[in-house]
């Protein structure tokens, strides 16, 4: 097994466990609202996810745009499926299904 | 909100949590399957793909790990990127315990909190908000069902192999879009007026960093600039 891959997994996994478990075990009160820590925590998640949305879609747009119609259908279906039930899993599956279906129709 | 003193119903059991994890497991399995396929397509072995799901257990991070590993990014840079991505999980435990009530036990949180993914957190918080009581064994059931589906789906996808979907181009394309759809759905789930500056700055910085230097630099630039935009805003 690739040593670098195992090291990467252990570092990321240990951090994941710490993020999920330690605040529950140790923190009995929330960070001061409006404080630096609270603002940093509040901004990091949205920044990370927005970055990944762009990073995952960008290769399809640049340098050579490809499969734009399936991409548009997938994005629209994800948003449309998310809004009524607020389900991340449901929206993900709907978006992927729409992308695959439109890809099949236009190819 | 649970309230031990006034609620007549007993605390939920492990099996109840396991049953409530079924919708999450049904959603996780195909996403994990596509991760297993993507991992073997990227050159990983089936045990390596399953190891990533067992040890990291964070969907978006794992797909990103594949991209970083195959692009040759240094281990520490990759680890930093993955860690920054999941920092939002820091808020889940305290938010859940606040909903569970002050008397809720957290003695075994070192175990069940490992399963606090976005979806498990959402499911648990929703159940508590609808009036269900909190128990740690229920959290174990909820988390274990989702975890098993994630690891199992990865194993099946990895064993099917990177070439498994070549005869099914539309299915292959749909599974390939699943990562973008997952990120987009996660973004929608945390979208708020307060988060908009961080989101906008992160998006612009990612595009500039990627086009000017590389994909890895774009990801780092987006996360750092976006988080700083959130800290400095008034």
TrEMBL record, chain A:
Record Pfam families: AzlD (PF05437)
Sequence intervals crossing the membrane: 36-55, 89-106
Superkingdom as given in the UniProt entry: Bacteria
Sorted UniProt keywords: Membrane, Transmembrane, Transmembrane helix
InterPro entries: Brnchd-chn_aa_trnsp_AzlD
Name the UniProt record assigns to this protein: Uncharacterized protein
Biological source species: Fuscovulum blasticum DSM 2131
UniProtKB/TrEMBL annotation, chain B:
InterPro entries per the UniProt record, alphabetical: Brnchd-chn_aa_trnsp_permease
Highest taxon of source: Bacteria
Lipid bilayer topology: Multi-pass membrane protein
Record-annotated membrane-spanning stretches: 20-38, 50-69, 75-97, 138-161, 167-191, 198-231
Location relative to the cell: Cell membrane
GO BP annotations listed: L-valine transmembrane transport
One protein family per Pfam: AzlC
Keywords tagged on the record: Cell membrane, Membrane, Transmembrane, Transmembrane helix, Transport
GO CC annotations, alphabetized: plasma membrane
Annotated family: Belongs to the AzlC family.
UniProt name for this protein: Branched-chain amino acid permease
Organism: Fuscovulum blasticum DSM 2131
Organismal lineage: Bacteria, Pseudomonadati, Pseudomonadota, Alphaproteobacteria, Rhodobacterales
